[in-house]
Amino acid sequence: MNGAMAPRRSHSALEAARFVPSRRCGLSSIGRTVVVGALLACAGCVLPARSSSAFEGKAVESAKSAYGAVATALLTAREASSGKLTAAYASVAMADAEKDANGAQSSFDSIQPPDRRSDQLRDDLDRMLSDAVSGIAQLRTEARRGHLASLAHQARDLHDVAKRLDRFQKAHQ
Q1: pTM of the model
Q2: Which of 5, 55, 90, 115 has the fewest CB within 10 Å, making it most exposed?
Q3: What do you get for the CA distance between the two ends of the chain, in Å?
Q4: Which fold does the domain 52-171 belong to in CATH?
């Protein structure tokens, strides 16, 4: 060599592990954990509907999920109005219900309708889901402001949404 020193290489176990071909191509234990976690998270994801009956089934599941969120919000509004819940508890419960309703809507909206009949079904349910999300959001805002006495009165429109979601489920099962 022309007097220059060769770069010094460290032979630590960590560096050696990085250069083993099977380690470079595989996943680390953290990587495997992330992949497994992602797969588990996607287990609840909605898959594409390939037929109108499959789409209708997914619509019913979304309506059930939203109905549960609306029922939670209505119960929270009633109990908070009667003085059985604090504003802090009511606002957290409403936020959770809103999150659930929003999740139902987002999951449903991610499904592409397979035909024109399903387009109409989607439009009908999506209006109900939007009404559910906005109604619960309104109640959450009032709960955070501490306006608990008026929550039951303000939940009147949400009662209508619950009835519509229930009718939808029964009509499409």
Answers
A1: 0.72
A2: 5
A3: 82
A4: Four Helix Bundle (Hemerythrin (Met), subunit A) (1.20.120)
Domain boundaries along the sequence of the chain: 15-42, 52-171
Give residue 38's region: left, alpha or beta (phi > 0; psi -120 to 50): alpha
For the stretch 6-44, pLDDT in tens is: 555 545 444 444 444 444 445 555 545 544 444 444 445
66-114 residue pLDDT tens: 999 999 999 999 999 999 999 999 999 999 999 999 999 999 999 999 9
Long-range contacts at 151-158 (CB < 8 A, ≥ 24 apart)? 151/76, 151/77, 151/78, 151/80, 151/81, 151/90, 152/77, 152/78, 152/80, 152/81, 152/82, 153/81, 154/77, 155/73, 155/74, 155/77, 155/78, 157/131, 158/70, 158/73, 158/74, 158/77, 158/132
